[in-house]
Amino acid sequence: MSLMRWDPFRDLVEIQRNLEDLFRRTFSAWDQPLAPVRTTGWTPALDVIQKEGELLIRAELPGVDPEQVEVTVEDNRLTIRGERKEQIEVEKENWLRRELRYGSFERCLTLPAEADTEKIKATYRNGVLEITVPYQPAAKPRRLTIDVEKPKK
Predict the structure, then answer these.
(1) pTM higher than 0.90 for the full model?
(2) Which domain holds residue 117?
(3) Is residue 55 one of the residues assigned to a domain?
């Protein structure tokens, strides 16, 4: 067994590579369909549910006027933007606690290539925006049988 001299910088380079790999996998928008692409301001919570032949996207928008919400699709990128306005005026020195966020928001999601963007529907009920995105599931792989010809004698 041979002895190797310990080099602390070699360990640091390995840690750096591992962290870069972690960030690349975590924040890459092209690794997974429906990966969040961009957010600004406060961010409404989203649920994305895959059903048979459609995706259901639910955005929690309590206190947001539906007239202030815009949903657009361009180049297989779905964008939800809007604004939640403050409803009461109170002097700053009268606040005991302030946890609600107000202002504009924007969420962008990359849709799968199979999405039928012409048939997307959106409804707003009880502070929840539901967007239904129909799609054609990719063909499932199947196994083919091979016919083998026997040699003639």
Answers:
(1) no
(2) 33-89+99-134
(3) yes
